[in-house]
Amino acid sequence: MNALARTPRIAPDGAAQALRTVRKTAGRRRTLVPAVLAGAVLALFAVYVLLGTYSFTIPDFFRILFGEQIPGATYILMESKLPRAVVGTLIGLGFGIAGAVFQTLLRNPLASPDIIGISYGASASAVCAIVLFGAAGTTVSAAALTGALLVALAIYLLSRRGGVAGYRLVLVGIGFAAVLQALVNFLLTRTDIRTASEALVWLNGSLNNSSWDRAAVLAGFLLVLLPAAAVLARTLRGLELGDDAAAGLGIRVERARLGLIVVAVGLAAAATAAAGPVAFIAFLSGPIARRLMHGQASLLAAGLVGSCIVLAADFVGANLVPGVTLPVGVVTGALGAPFLLWLLVTSNRVGQGG
Amino acid sequence: MSVAARPSALSHRPAAPAGPQTPGSRRRAGLLLLTLLVLGLACAASVAIGARPIAPGTVWDAVTAFDPSNGDHAVVLSRIPRTVLGVLAGAALGLAGAAMQGVARNPLADPGILGVNAGAAFAVVLGIYVFGVTRLTGYVWFALAGAAAAAVVVYLVASLGREGATPVKLALAGAALSAGLMSLLSAVLVSSQQTLDTFRFWQVGSVSGRDWDTILAVLPFLAAGALIAVSTGRMLNGLSLGDDVARGLGQRVGLSRGITALGVVLLCGAATAAAGPIAFIGLVIPHVVRSFTGPDYRWILPFSMLLAPALLVSADVAGRVLLPPGEIPVGVTTAVIGAPVFIWLVRRRKLAEL
Fold first, then answer.
1. Interface mutation target, options B110, B182, B186, chain A, most CBs of A under 10 Å
2. What is the pLDDT of residues B294-334, one digit of tens each?
3. With CB atoms 3.0 to 4.6 Å apart as the test, which of A119, A219, A299, B47 could cross-link to A114 if both were Cys?
4. CB neighbours of A344 closer than 8 A, spacing ≥ 6?
């Protein structure tokens, strides 16, 4: 750091000036972009709650919010739309940050929890609960949470070999994903078609079962995990430079990495438990945020981008085709796949694809 | 990757004709007979063993002197097409896996990992949903087109960039494309329960309940693909030296790749159309074979073609016995057997060398 700070004094005035400008714009962007994104989340939240098949005027909204009973409208707002929007915002945050942590940590834009097997752990365990034990609601969420954590632990332990190499973590995760996918497919054939389509809706990720209880549980998890992520974000920036450079900066590499993995897995698992494995949120948020920040990794921005995507996608899914409510995961999947291909192409061209 | 790191590939008589007179060849010919014997045993077990216990004497009678009025004989007869399909699909997947690993110079190449199965699956769902295809003879074309498109996309995307198609890039591109296609596919399945009901039994990967028509429909594709793939041994040996050396030896690298890829797509597409996506057979078998044949593809290919069906048919028999009165589809058993091998491969150090 010292050497860097001294450089401008030796360098000619023009260069120092340029450096200062660059730093100033970068610093401004660091605060400006998250602020704009937070505004976008608020705006989308308002659109989501106020408009749609049943719309509210803004005065009505506040009157209901402060306790006035309007038959029908109160129920729709307080028991359906609002919890749904809150859960959507929170899972967006969770998935977005989890994805950004993994992508930065493994230095690979493709290594998000839904691709390296952690979401499949949640899926397999939740489908087990639905198909074998007829579970619904909270039990399914608990099963998903446990499954995700167990699979993440197994992947971590199996990819250890004198330290965890990024590529090994990715590949072991892909192996797990394949087996768990086979298990899910098998379970779907062992049940009647009604249970199978119910499980399929869960597998797609959907906000249909959102309630205040669920929002509260999710908020509780985030209250613990988000501060932890904020603290660890500092080490993440060092780790991004490579293990040796990070160690040189005084970061305990192995311990920092374990802490980050625990936080990211926890966020992904909590979000999956609340709404199912919504495709591509974790995967898309990081790269979009990075692009908005002009190459800087920012967990906050990634989380806010995640919230924007979930709210927008669920609004589209609910209102695109009249009479049909598409699960949010279907919309994000349809939007995510083309983006994914484009990302694969561009990231490989500059040699970051692995 | 590093050509210099593979002196064994160079010293392994790349151009010398392997006549039957060399002692190594005689040993391999013996092994080939042994493999055939194992395959024969697996087939015999597949006809004799099943959910309904039938005495070996009765099985023999059913094969030699069929009596239409005897219920046991009918059961034995119904096991024959599934055995034949198991052999065909196994041979196709083993051969395709070996050729794919050769052409990608990548130890992790496998139709399941590289997204080819997902491409076929997506195309089949489109066929069922959009065009109302219910007969398997119709699936074949969709599966072939989907497999080809997915293979091309994954390989192109992964091979962009300076270092070419590394194992991690290929696996990630495949996993990411699979994830994208799978969520698009779910979008179809969520909105059409009827499609789901047809599709879920295909998707799990199984050889049961297929009739002779199915087998006859895919047979021409399998035969053509097998002919192409088996004859590529010499080309793959050349490619295994690296593009530059192969070119220096007078080989047309692009043409060799294209021919091999054509064989792989025909084999995977047809096998997947008939039996559904079956992962890991194509991955595991070539590695087992390589351990006793060495790196010469002229031996790896035929051995893979014989050993893979032995594994697939045995896995199918095991799936019938393990969970009476039901059956575990072969796609699940092979994933459970294959994944540990995959993870073991990943944990070995010399991953990038092939």
1. B186
2. 788 888 899 999 999 998 998 888 888 887 667 788 888 88
3. A119
4. A110, A353, B157, B158, B173, B176
Contact check, Cβ <8 Å, A182/B336:
yes
Chain B hits for A333, CB-CB cut-off 8 Å, are 180, 182-184, 186-187
Cα separation, B14 vs B9, in Å, equals: 8
Cβ within 8 Å of A, B 249-308: 279-280
Interface check B169 vs A, CB under 8 A: yes
- In chain A the first and final C-alpha atoms are separated, in Å, by 29
Domains of chain A: 32-349 (1.10.3470.10)
Q: Which residues contact B336 (CB under 8 A, 6 or more apart)?
A: A179, A182
> DSSP for B206-254?
--TT--HHHHHHHHHHHHHHHHHHHTTHHHHHHHTT-HHHHHHTT--HH
The percent of residues in chain A predicted with pLDDT above 90, rounded, is 6
In CATH, what number does B86-347 get? 1.10.3470.10
What gap in Å lies between CA A112 and CA A341, rounded to an integer? 15
Across A11-20, A291-300, B262-271, which has the greatest mean pLDDT? Answer: B262-271
- Testing the interface with A: which of B129, B154, B200, B206 to mutate, by most A Cβ within 10 A? B200
**Which pLDDT tens digit goes with each residue over B115-169?**
888 888 888 888 888 887 776 677 778 888 888 888 888 878 877 766 666 666 7
Instruction: Tell me which residue has tokens 């705006």.
Output: A43
**Domain locations along chain B:** 86-347
Q: Which residue of A has its CA nearest to B278?
A: A182
Q: Cβ–Cβ of A175/B196 closer than 8 Å? A: no
Whether the Cβ atoms of residue B227 and residue B99 lie closer than 8 Å to each other: no
Which of A130, A46, A92, A69 is CA-nearest to residue A285?
A: A92
Helical spans, DSSP H, in A159-204: 166-189, 193-204
Per-residue pLDDT tens over the stretch B71-81? 777 777 778 88
Q: Both ends of chain B: CA-CA distance in Å?
A: 8
Q: Is B179–A279 a contact, with Cβ atoms under 8 angstroms apart?
A: yes
Nearest-5° angle of CA A291, CA A120, CA A317? 60
Using a pLDDT cut of 70, give the percent of chain B over it.
87
C-alpha dist (Å) from residue B175 to A113, A181, B204, B268: 12, 12, 18, 17
Any chain A CB within 8 A of the CB of B183? yes
How far does the CA of residue A350 sit from the closest CA of chain B (Å)?
A: 6
ipTM: 0.71
Q: What residues form DSSP beta bridges with A160?
A: A164
CA distance B167 to A135: 40
